[in-house]
Design a protein that fits this description.
Blueprint (H helix, E strand, L loop, with lengths): L22 H13 L4 H23 L2 H30 L4 H29 L2
Helix pairs in contact: 1-2, 3-4
């Protein structure tokens, strides 16, 4: 098998990969290669490299401290929401709320304010990264 040289001094490419495409897809690939003044092979290789890079970035973003902090805030807000719903349900069922219910609702509102403040901090910090 004859080795083909690669432009740019990279590793030589000697392996052939066959690709099945319909007319529209093949035209799209050829047009993309022509726009970039590249071969079809190089265009496809660069597209795959770009795709792989994007996948790595998504994994890094998913595990970032900002995303973890936002997930924790979301969890806390959901927990508080469940508590408030229980208080409202009890108040509607009995048509009156106890002092404890009012205190619990007031505490839940304070927790929400604190979480929203924390959320603002996380968003501001992530905007500066």
């Amino acid at each position: 098998m004859r080795k083909r040289s690669s432009k740019g001094g990279g590793e030589q490419r000697s392996i052939q990969v066959h690709l099945m495409a319909n007319e529209e897809e093949a035209g799209m690939i050829r047009t993309a290669a022509k726009k970039r003044n590249q071969t079809v092979s190089l265009t496809i290789i660069e597209a795959v490299k770009l795709l792989e890079g994007r996948l790595q970035v998504k994994e890094e973003e998913r595990d970032s401290p900002t995303v973890q902090a936002l997930k924790e805030i979301e969890y806390q807000l959901r927990r508080i929401g469940r508590n408030v719903n229980q208080i409202a349900h009890n108040a509607n069922r009995e048509m009156n709320a106890t002092i404890e219910d009012e205190a619990s609702a007031s505490y839940a509102v304070r927790q929400c304010r604190e979480l929203i403040d924390h959320l603002d901090t996380v968003i501001e910090r992530s905007g500066n990264d």
